[in-house]
Write a structure and sequence with these properties.
Pfam families: Aldo_ket_red (PF00248). One of its GO terms (molecular function) is oxidoreductase activity. There is one protein chain. By secondary structure, the protein is an alpha/beta fold. It has one domain: NADP-dependent oxidoreductase domain (TIM Barrel, Alpha-Beta Barrel). It is 36% helix and 14% strand. The protein contains 13 helices and ten strands. The strands form two sheets. An eight-stranded parallel beta sheet has the order 3-4-5-6-7-8-9-10, with helices on one face. It has a two-stranded antiparallel ribbon with strand order 1-2. Strand 1 and strand 2 form a beta hairpin. The two termini are 31 Å apart.
């Protein structure tokens, strides 16, 4: 495992880390015992950074992380997020009183005295423009409740706006082989300004594992069922915004990237690791096996210049026009 500085902060994190949405909820059935084993396996492989949110299982993923990292609070960094437990469009959700409440509840569930990275969880553009929430975060940072803060964004415009605030230390963005647009302007600008990049939805909600056929069905409590067309939240969070059947077709066309590599998923993650602007990539998981498979990415051969050129051309010619929702 290799480690990279999170922007210009004093935090150095594993280049491959993990997101914990799946073990919290909204990804079908989970098993806490297996989730804890998987978290332990990840740490055994050198993973020292996990991303979560207060709404993942109504705080359940934070509680699981507290159990898994007990005694390792100084070794394992945790990033969590806030705002989606309330009305994301209301300024009241971002008031000092409300954000403090979100923060203290997360600290309690995580059993920590300070949050390593506190992120606004995909807020509307107008909220970012007002800037009120950043003032609140500055105060919490001054009090020592948070170490650094950042923003999880849906669009390039939102990301670029956040970069205007010098205290934003990390951006979390949807980025994968089927969602390459951040490479054009956002990622280079963030690197230039010393802002860390956390790549989420790296396997396009499982499309880039290659395990699905167009007839696959998902559990009703899985967002890949109830949000596949953006009915519950931004469609980009599910399959990167691509219609499922089209996504399966595109993933099949990308199957060549596993030639000389172990898995389609580890190859897809390797492509993200090859982008110098990315600090860490955070695939999800529910089992030890999935953790092991994803960790393979750090050992996969890097993509050649020719492969990178072909993948960029494939995105422009066959993928970009199929992405739905603002991005």
């Amino acid at each position: 495992m290799q480690y990279k500085q999170l922007g210009d902060t004093d935090v150095k994190i594993s280049q491959l880390s993990f997101g914990t949405w799946a073990i919290g909820g909204s990804w079908g059935r989970t098993n806490d015992k297996e989730s804890l084993k998987a978290l332990e396996t990840a740490m055994d492989h050198g993973v020292n950074f996990f991303d979560t949110a207060d709404v993942y299982g109504d705080g359940h993923s934070e509680e699981l992380l507290a159990q898994a990292t007990k005694g390792k609070e100084d070794e394992v960094y945790i990033a969590t997020k806030f705002c989606r437990a309330g009305d994301i469009f209301s300024p009241d959700t971002y008031s000092a009183e409300q954000v403090r409440s979100y923060c203290e509840n997360s600290l309690r569930r995580l059993k920590r005295e300070r949050l390593d990275l506190y992120q606004i969880h995909c807020p509307p553009l107008d909220i970012l423009k007002s800037g009120q929430v950043f003032t609140v975060l500055d105060q919490l940072q001054a009090e020592g409740k948070i170490r650094n803060y950042g923003v999880s964004v849906e669009t390039i415009e939102e990301g670029l706006l956040c970069l205007e605030n010098p205290n934003v230390k990390a951006l979390q963005v949807i980025f994968n082989l089927l969602r390459q647009k951040p490479l054009e302007t956002l990622l280079p600008k963030a690197k230039e300004q010393g802002v860390g990049i956390i790549a989420r939805v790296p396997l396009a909600s499982g499309l880039l594992t290659g395990k699905f056929t167009s007839s696959h069905t998902f559990d009703k409590d899985d967002h890949r069922h109830f949000n596949r067309d953006g009915d519950s939240f931004n469609v980009g969070e599910t399959f990167g915004g691509i219609e499922f059947e089209k996504g399966v077709e595109l993933a099949q066309k990308l199957s060549w990237i596993k030639d000389g590599r172990k898995h389609l998923s580890s190859a897809a993650l390797r492509w993200i690791l090859d982008q110098e602007e990315v600090t860490t990539v955070i695939p999800g998981f529910k089992t030890v096996e999935q953790v092991e498979k994803n960790v393979e990415a750090v050992h996969e051969p890097k993509f050649t210049a020719e492969e990178l050129k072909n993948l960029a051309a494939f995105y422009k010619s066959e993928v970009e026009q199929h992405i739905r929702g603002p991005y």
